[in-house]
């Protein structure tokens, strides 16, 4: 699930996560000893921000991301979290279906990037 990232990029990501001073939790699901799905969450003022949700291609559509996200939401609830938010690509239909099934129903905002060529 490193997306082909170099070791330097992975280390930079690790350092940036270590710098988060808010309450945070990391969750992973393994199947037969292999990483299937990961995510992390950061809690701020009762909101759980879910980030870096990923599932290995061969493990998709098997409930692993649901399990990981449910664990993070349970953790946040135990810490006083009342709501959760996340970002997802509008064209990622499987992720949108998963998030809707978990109760995510509202688009807060949409954005896009432009290139000035």
N/C terminus separation = 32 Å
- The CATH topology turns out to be Aminopeptidase
Estimate the strand proportion. 25-35%
Shape summary:
globular
Strand order of the largest sheet: 1-2-3-4
What string, H for helix and E for strand, traces the elements in order? HEEEHEH
Give the CATH H-level superfamily.
Answer: Gcn5-related N-acetyltransferase (GNAT)
Number of domains: 1
From the alpha carbons, calculate the radius of gyration and give it in angstroms: 15 Å
Label the structural class: alpha+beta
Structural write-up:
This protein has one domain: Aminopeptidase (3-Layer(aba) Sandwich). It is 31% helix and 26% strand. It has three helices and four strands; from the N terminus they run αβββαβα. A four-stranded mixed beta sheet has the order 1-2-3-4, covered by helices on one side. β3 (47-55), α2 and β4 form a beta-alpha-beta unit.
Features:
117 residues; globular; 26% strand; 3 helices; 4 strands; Aminopeptidase; alpha+beta; four-stranded mixed β-sheet
Question: How does the SSE layout of this entry go?
Answer:
Layout lengths: L6 H12 L5 E8 L2 E11 L2 E9 L8 H15 L4 E3 L7 H9 L16
Parallel strand pairs: 3-4
Antiparallel strand pairs: 1-2, 2-3
Produce a short descriptive summary.
The chain is 31% helix and 26% strand.
């Amino acid at each position: 699930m490193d997306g082909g990232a170099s070791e330097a990029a992975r280390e930079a990501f690790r350092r940036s996560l270590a710098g988060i001073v808010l309450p945070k939790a990391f969750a992973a699901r393994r199947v037969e000893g292999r990483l299937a799905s990961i995510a992390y969450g950061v809690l701020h003022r009762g909101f759980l921000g879910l980030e870096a949700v990923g599932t290995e291609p061969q493990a998709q559509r098997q409930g692993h991301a649901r399990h990981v996200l449910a664990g993070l939401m349970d953790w946040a609830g135990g810490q006083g979290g009342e709501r959760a938010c996340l970002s997802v690509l509008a064209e990622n239909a499987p992720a949108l279906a998963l998030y809707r099934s978990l109760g995510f129903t509202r688009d807060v905002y949409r954005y896009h990037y432009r290139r000035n060529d």
